[in-house]
Design goal:
about 40% helix, 5-stranded antiparallel sheet, binds iron/sulfur cluster, alpha+beta, Immunoglobulin-like, about 20% strand
């Protein structure tokens, strides 16, 4: 079976490896690793990083591909704009994303953490590489930590943090483009910060947070803060793919007590683990995978590459640490847990599709204007009219311009009702909203039961109710 010892015994001291005996942080400086998995990961992460940086500068159907316009409360994804009043649809998207993550975790374990999480991607691909470039490989960096500070160390540290600052600022600006829009961001960057104080502050704070997180906090985020890391133990089962040490093959490791214990069945045979501890040296969270599956393992595959290199040198088969399942079965989608997640994902996806298909091109919000609920006036022919004033909030939910024609169907309601607006038809640019003042005249004779009458008006092919109010006393047309 491909398992290690109980997960509670995951370090020799029984403590989290990133903490010292007083609970203080032990800054982990992992060794560099090269191998088939790290090369594959670099390709995937480079693609994801470029995607993250490029997407806000791309357009899809006349709008930015992804734009989360919080001040105007509208969210655009690949040509579909969801407004604040469509929060249930946004909620559906989040449910699908959550269930998708559950499905992936149930089948492939923490593949998200190791391969795609921004925390891993930015640290692996950007910050740690810069650090190696400036301060040297892990041995030099570990020595730098204990050596007395010299002008060279001061210089390297200053240069490193300056480069971290530049990179953090670039990332913060790229992230801001998702919220303010790439074009608007460019405009603001060419303007004085004083004129854009809110965004300047947000980007500065974001730069600071990124600098703190990717430059210093690093693995502690995964170990201490990440909620997904906490509940992944509930999502994984014995058939999920995880990074595992093959204890049956590796133990008793070279030089271990087990090796010398006479009553152990394997005592006369040394396992394949040569106790080089390379797997521990390369681990970004500092754990020893030989002690079994642990919550701190982000499935980054570094120990797999490190051990494979060692096995190659020792002329032994690779895969002492490898992807596998705790049950020893091969990874499959066809399990009740993964199928349930997948089925729920599909159900919510279909619901979302139906909801999106049923969306009207223009959303209409109707509000009575704030002044007096009605007025009685005379029209051009000297007839007495009841006047109701409404504010119509029209939102063009597409990305093309729409001409919205407002009318009251005279065949249905007779010629007594006249709808007027300063602009009819109303020009609605794609993805924009507009407030239109609408006046509805009700010519005598009025028929206002309880002081009100419900009719309807039309905007293109959409029909909406309209409640006219008037004086109860005047119902009889005295
Ligand atoms: S145990 Fe291996 S896979 Fe897990 S975090 Fe450490 S190096 Fe990465
Ligand atoms: S890298 Fe492989 S051989 Fe070396 S200590 Fe780890 S498991 Fe054992």
């Amino acid at each position: 079976m491909v398992t290690g010892k109980d997960s509670e015994n995951y370090t020799e001291t029984g403590t989290v490896p990133s903490l010292d005996e007083h609970g203080g942080r032990v800054g982990i400086i992992p060794a560099e690793v090269d191998g088939i998995w790290s090369r594959r990961k670099t390709k995937v992460q480079t693609f994801l990083l470029l995607l993250l940086l490029i997407v806000p500068w791309t357009r899809f159907e006349n709008s930015q591909t992804i734009l989360m316009d919080i001040p105007n409360r509208k969210f655009t994804f690949f040509g579909v704009t969801l407004w604040a009043h469509e929060a249930p649809l946004v909620f559906l998207v989040l449910i699908i994303a959550g269930l998708g993550l559950f499905f992936v975790t149930a089948v492939w374990g923490r593949v998200w953490c190791g391969w795609a999480c921004p925390q891993t991607v930015f640290i692996d691909l950007v910050y740690r590489r810069l650090e190696i470039l400036i301060e040297g490989k892990f041995v030099a960096r570990r020595r730098m930590k204990i050596d007395p500070w010299t002008p060279t160390i001061y210089f390297k540290k200053t240069l490193k943090w300056f480069s971290f600052f530049i990179v953090s600022s670039l990332i913060a600006h790229s992230l801001a483009a998702y919220f303010v829009g790439a074009r608007e961001l460019l405009r603001m960057m060419g303007d004085s910060p004083v004129n854009n104080m809110t965004y300047f502050t947000i980007i500065t704070v974001t730069t600071g947070l990124l600098l703190f997180n990717f430059g210093w906090f690093r693995e502690q985020f995964c170990i201490i803060m990440c909620p997904y890391g906490r509940f992944q133990s509930a999502l994984l089962d014995a058939d999920s793919q995880v990074v595992l040490y093959d204890a049956a093959r590796g133990e008793p490791r070279r030089g271990s007590e087990l090796d010398a214990t006479p009553n152990k069945p394997t005592a006369n045979k040394t396992g394949d683990c040569v106790a080089c501890r390379r797997c521990v040296q390369v681990c970004p969270t500092g754990i020893d995978i030989r002690y079994g599956l642990q919550m701190e393992c982000i499935a980054c595959t570094a120990c797999m590459d490190a051990c494979d290199t060692m096995m190659e040198k020792m002329n032994r088969p690779k895969g002492l640490i490898r992807y596998g399942t705790q049950s020893g079965k091969s990874v499959t989608l066809l399990r009740p847990r993964s199928l349930i997640y997948l089925a729920l994902c599909i159900v919510f996806f279909v619901i979302l599709g139906i909801q999106l298909k049923g969306r009207k091109e223009v959303d209409i919000g109707l509000l009575r204007a704030l002044e007096a609920p009605y007025q009685i006036a005379q029209d051009e022919q000297g007839r007495k009219v009841l006047l109701n004033h409404f504010k119509l909030h029209l939102k063009n939910q597409t990305h093309h311009s729409i001409k919205a024609t407002l009318s009251i169907d005279s065949k249905k309601w007779g010629n007594q009702f006249v709808l007027t607006t300063p602009e009819n038809p109303v020009d609605l640019p794609g993805g924009e909203d507009k407030v239109v003042h609408v006046f509805v005249k009700y010519l005598e004779p009025w028929n206002l039961a309880q002081g009100q009458k419900t009719i309807s008006f039309q905007m293109n092919d959409i029909e909406r109710e309209l409640v006219l109010v008037g004086p109860i006393a005047e119902q009889k047309n005295e």
